[in-house]
Amino acid sequence: MKKLVVSVLSLLMALTVLPWMPQSVQAEEMMDLSLMLDWYPNANHVPIYVAIKEGYFEEEGLNLTINMPAEADDPIKLAGAGQTDIAVSYPAVLMQAVAEGIPAKAIGSLVQQRLDAVMYKKESGITTPKDLEGKKVGYSATTISENIIEAMMEHDGASYDKAEMVNVGWDLIPALATDKVDALIGAYTNHELLMLQKEGYDVDYFDFTEYGVPDSDELIFVAGNDTIEAKKPELQAFMRALKKGFDKALADPEAAIETIFENEDNAYVLDKEIEIQSWDLLQDYMVSKGDFGNLVVDDYVAFAKFLADKGSIAKELTAEELIEDLSK
């Protein structure tokens, strides 16, 4: 009889969710969520990996799976198709996708300050966009890059037709280092700039917003419209966990960047010195426009209008088409 009582009690405990048990232990309440990065793990992703290491996603009841893209445009396409719940992407890529009919929206920011800039060697004599006349400008095969250079040069009183645009693919650093081009667009201030400086090149840059191009975030989280409708509580929990991850990362920056090295992909070897410098910059860049995850609606509308006016996208887009407010 005593054995029977013990067996019954054991069975009841196994079937009961005890109130003091942490959410991460209550497996039946865990919600699956998938995230596709924009690239292999690097300093841009520190809050994500800190949140994973600290168990913040589990605390929010999420079973998070992370995937890497096979192609650069996979994240936004797969998010729109519902084949990943969330993707790390870029405002311009989102706007192009939405204008083409892909049903997706931004749900939060990862890096609020634009990282892209026009870079050049100081010895080239370039100091403003006007100096790009008669120069070769390297870019990575996007019409948006061409549109931005055109807008900046026109704003500075120069003729875009007098600059030569050179498609260098992703060989941005070699193109400038070997003087294949005189300037670059598409290079990041927290990566290519640091790499070139490390190699001994005296490089400077000017920012888009100084010459007539509307501001925008750099990296954002996007989700498909169907996912937003079906999994809004999970998406809200995701952003809460990320906020905790970012706060924890700020509290111990050195430990935070180590989470990236711990998750380094063999296919993409990181330069630790560069990633540490990048993370030093990103701590401010991730909250340059407000709290972590904040989206400035007016910036999105203005940048979408700019792209439409330049012909990069087929039409202007509204805030409702581009952004989902998870606070509601």
From TrEMBL:
It comes from the Bacteria. GO terms for biological process: thiamine biosynthetic process. This is Putative hydroxymethylpyrimidine transport system substrate-binding protein. InterPro entries: NMT1/THI5, SsuA/THI5. The keyword Signal applies. Residues 1-27 form the signal peptide. Keywords: Signal. It holds the Pfam family NMT1. Residues 42-256 form the SsuA/THI5-like domain.
